[in-house]
Every structure is written in structure tokens, then in C-alpha cells.
Amino acid sequence: MATDYYAVLGVQRDASQDEIKKAFRRLARELHPDVNPDPKTQERFKEINTAYEVLSDPQKKQMYDLGGDPAGPGGGAGFGAGGFGNFSDIMDAFFGTTAQRGPRSRTRRGQDAMIRLEITLEEAAFGTTKEIQVDTATVCGTCSGEGAAPGTSAQTCDMCRGRGEVSQVTRSFLGQVMTSRPCPQCQGFGTVVPTPCPECAGDGRIRSRRSLTVKIPAGVDNGTRIQLAGEGEVGPGGGPAGDLYVEIRETPHPVFQRRGDDLHCTVTIPMTAAALGTKCPLETLDGVEDVDIRPGTQSGQSIPLHGRGVTHLRGSGRGDLIVHVEVQTPGKLEPEQEELLRKLAKLRGEERPTGQFQPGQQGLFSRLKDAWSGR
């Protein structure tokens, strides 16, 4: 026996396949020509490749242990004659992974889908249940997702014989290198469908409309997405469906403006009501309530109604309803009204008010400039 392949890899004759593979990967990382271009190292690299090709194949290993040399002349193996059959193991030695082998499945998970759903402020505040119509891919009822016409089935590809890939041998400075690529006839599936289903054209799924019930939790806001697991697109080949996301769009309310979980609105009252006080009925989300305008209320003041806002989505309780007061000054007075106001001004000593002047409010950039200059 010209070469001791066990000694080449540095393993015992009773070494397991895992031990042989680990020894080969260790030596391949050290001796690969890309790492060590020394010609002597290249010869050594060819030796470990040949040794591993023999010892990793049960039939060749058995022949070698009985005294034969499968890698020798006429043996049908070896680095120069049998090709670079351990390319994937060398890749695994350097990158820690091996290229996926075998045909790929026709069945794959479907994509996620998203639709937008408009709801009112009241529905967002308290939650609701909605019926929606969804157009998505569903399993073809004619072929049950198989993709083949009724009475037919997929057949093994005669080009790759079901492997899903074809091999090609090329020559390099290392010798003959064998590479694999997806089979062009079956696109890597390992099978072909001679007679596709006429309903789905072999895809295993069709577009259809279906109804779903969506539970909208209280407190959702614009942009909130509700996930419905498994209600999205069915995958090719009748694969598992993706998820469906329902994105909430809240329609504008004629009275209230939402800011977080608080609601805001503005009530306009005449100056007499602001001076004397009054009660204004307001249609809140909980029904009609009186807003108490106290005597002497100024324009711009706000009146909070606690717990009358939107339900907190994460947590208990609700936001507030903030009523902003705007006092309206009459632009035109009747003679009698003007006379009454003049009498009131005289009684209050406000016939010729001088007014109180204050510095105007600075903008953001002015305040930053003052702060920078140390004013």
C-alpha cells in the first residue's frame, strides 16, 4: 500500500467518520492554496483531499481497509482522476457551513398582507368589532395546493433525477473541480408538473375574497396595527399562510380633536356669559354633559372634564376632555346696547382705560439668540 491515508489525516485506523471529518477540516484550513501558496503545501493539500475522499466514502474505505487503493490507477477516485469531490467539506472547513443539498420544496410560507380600516372616534375610544372583506391568495380547491391537474401528479425530473441540482466539472490549478447549480429544467424542485392545474396554473393557490371578523381593542389610534396570525397570503404549493395586519385609520370628528388619549374642543361664548357665568351643554362620548362656565372666565382658559377622553390602550382608565373657552366680543352694537355698556363702563371706572402693555412673546430663535449672547 503506497500511501497510509490514516496517517495523512493524522487519525487512528478505528477513527469515526466525525473524527475523520474534523481532521480533514483542520488540515484544509491550514493547507488550502489560498492560505498557503507554497507548491509543497499544494501537494500536501492534494494528499489530504485524496485521503479524505477515500476514508469518507464507506465503500472506498472498505476497499482500502482490505488492501486496495480506490484512489490509485484504475481505482476510480483520487484528486486528479476522481474530481474535487469534497468541495463542500472544504467550504465548511473555512466558513462553518455546507451548501444546502437536495431539491427545494414547492411548498413555501405565504407573504404577510395589510389592509387599512377606517373607524370613528367613538369606536376607537371604546373598542368595537368589525366585519371586513379581504382579497388574498387561498388554496386552490381544484388541486388542493398540489399544482397538478386532477388525475395527474408531479413527476421526477429526468435531468437531475430528483436531486434538484446538476453538477459540472471544470479544471483549475487544483485539478478538476466539481460545482453544483440548481437544475434548469425543474428550477431546483426535483420534480416537474407535466399538466398544471387549469384553475391555478400550477401555483397551488388562487385569489379569492373572504370575510373576517376583527376585534378592535379600546384605545387604538391612527397607525395602530392589529395582527391576525395566519390570515394573510397562502404560500405557493398550498404552503402555510402569512399574517394579516389591519392598520387603523381614525376618521376626523366634527367636534373633538384627539391628542394622545385626551380630547380637545373649543366653546365660544359671548362676553356677557363669560362675565356672569353660564352652563353650556356638550355632547361628549358618554352623552350630554353641562360645562360649567364660572363668572369671570377669560378667553383662552380651559376646563378639564376628567375621565371623559379615550380609553388607555395599555393600562386602565381614560384620558381627559379639555374644553377651551373663547370669549366673543360683539363687533356691532345696537344704540340701546351701546348705552348700557357705556353705563357699565362708567360704573366700573373704565370709561377711558389706559390698558396694560407687556413685552411681546419671543419666538424660539430669539430666545436662543438671547441665551447665546448672555442677555
Automatic annotation (TrEMBL):
Annotated function: Participates actively in the response to hyperosmotic and heat shock by preventing the aggregation of stress-denatured proteins and by disaggregating proteins, also in an autonomous, DnaK-independent fashion. Unfolded proteins bind initially to DnaJ; upon interaction with the DnaJ-bound protein, DnaK hydrolyzes its bound ATP, resulting in the formation of a stable complex. GrpE releases ADP from DnaK; ATP binding to DnaK triggers the release of the substrate protein, thus completing the reaction cycle.
Protein name as annotated: Chaperone protein DnaJ
CDD domains: DnaJ, DnaJ_C, DnaJ_zf
Organism annotation: Streptomyces chumphonensis
J domain residues: 4-68
PROSITE patterns for this protein: DNAJ_1, DNAJ_2, ZF_CR
MF GO annotations: ATP binding; heat shock protein binding; unfolded protein binding; zinc ion binding
Compositionally biased residues, Polar residues: 355-364
Chain residues that bind Zn(2+) 1: 140, 143, 197, 200
GO cellular component: cytoplasm
Known partners and oligomeric status: Homodimer.
Positions with a binding annotation for Zn(2+) 2: 157, 160, 183, 186
Zn finger (CR-type) location: 127-209
Keywords: Chaperone, Cytoplasm, DNA replication, Metal-binding, Repeat, Stress response, Zinc, Zinc-finger
Region (Disordered): 350-375
Any matching Pfam family: DnaJ_CXXCXGXG
Gene3D superfamilies tied to this protein: DnaJ domain (1.10.287.110), Heat shock protein DnaJ, cysteine-rich domain (2.10.230.10), Urease metallochaperone UreE, N-terminal domain (2.60.260.20)
Gene: dnaJ
